[in-house]
Specification:
Elements lengths: L8 E4 L10 H6 L5 E6 L5 H8 L4 H14 L3 E7 L2 H4 L2 H11 L5 E5 L5 H5 L1 H4 L7 H13 L3 E5 L23 E2 L16 E2 L15
Parallel strand pairs: 1-2, 2-3, 3-4, 4-5
Antiparallel strand pairs: 6-7
Helix pairs in contact: 5-8
The chain binds iron/sulfur cluster (SF4).
């Protein structure tokens, strides 16, 4: 880190394995250049544990987040939106404001059609174009307590106008695609579209050029 001060690091971790013995190493890092991306799917331990496939993961994550918080680490909490956790999003937002208000960003992410998600797509994909209310409520709760919220991988037309500024174009050019519905869309310049491997039957009931 000392040799290349221009570099920034984004570390993805499940937050399960931090120990007090790691504190010295953590404090030696230039914490201004490291962001820790940590997945948290629900404030309900049962739902979180089911999604990650590990009993006790939620509880372990609490101590991992507390460790990062005490060390002054920058935390980007990541919640992938899915059918099992969608309606619990406002509860998760309230949980964040009371239990981990020290996070830098809450990233709510649309599901990527890859790996486990692809195999279970019909059970997991949540159509936020017709069910955005739960996302909006969660955003309002978090932002009212000064938690920064970002929407990743949301097609822009599926996000109501007042929330679009929270949905940057996050899919890189080389893996980005658009659908037939996107022809002549006036938002296309600001919209990240879809991952190239997203099904052509895209699953959004309300998608289309604006
Ligand atoms: S119609 Fe296509 S390009 Fe336009 S906002 Fe929707 S997803 Fe993006």
């Amino acid at each position: 880190m000392l040799a290349r001060e221009d570099l920034r690091f984004h570390v993805l971790t499940n937050g399960q394995h931090f120990e007090s013995a790691d504190r010295e190493v953590m404090l030696a890092l230039d914490r201004s250049r490291v962001v820790w991306g940590v997945p948290l799917y629900s404030a309900d331990p049962t739902i979180h544990d089911e999604i990650v496939g590990k009993a006790g993961a939620f509880e372990k994550l609490q101590s991992g987040l507390a460790f990062l918080g005490r060390a002054g680490a920058q935390i980007e909490l990541r919640t992938v939106l899915m059918q099992p956790n969608a309606q619990g999003l406002p509860r998760l937002a309230r949980y964040l404001t009371t239990s981990v208000p020290f996070i830098q960003t809450w990233a709510i992410m649309q599901l990527e059609n890859i790996g486990y998600a692809r195999q279970n797509w019909s059970r997991l994909f949540f159509d936020s174009s017709t069910g955005f209310e739960t996302v909006a409520q969660a955003i309002d709760i978090a932002r009212s307590r000064s938690i920064d919220v970002q929407l990743f991988n949301f097609p822009l037309c599926t996000v109501p106008g007042p929330y679009r500024h929270l949905a940057p174009s996050t899919i890189s050019d080389w893996k980005r695609a658009y659908m037939d519905d996107c022809k002549n869309c006036s938002l296309r310049g600001d919209c990240g579209g879809f991952f190239e491997w997203h099904p052509r039957e895209h699953g959004y009931a309300s998608l289309g050029g604006v």
